[in-house]
Amino acid sequence: MINKIALVLVLLATSSCAQNKGTVAKINQAVTNTNIGVCKDPRPQMCTMEYLPVCGLISNKAVKTYGNACGACSDIHVTQYVKGECENDALERFLDGSIGDALPKKSTH
Length: 109
Description:
Layout lengths: L1 H33 L1 E3 L15 E5 L3 E5 L2 H5 L4 E6 L6 H7 L13
Antiparallel strand pairs: 1-4, 2-3, 2-4
């Protein structure tokens, strides 16, 4: 009888851990997505000078650090941005989908 109770407890603990992993993954994805900004028309014509840096994706070809989201979106070629300054691998990460929603780079093979 004790073995059956122990087995039930182990199964319950295992199933709840599996459910929590899915929840954590969903939370992590939601946090990642909240860091992505998408530029929409009409584009801003004037922006404040506050410094809250963002890394803007320029026509899926380059990245540039802008002083803030407004400054990034005032550039007609910026499609989206993520919070923070651009890191060395930012373009690669945009294009492989690690950050942002850029279309993947087409293979030339």
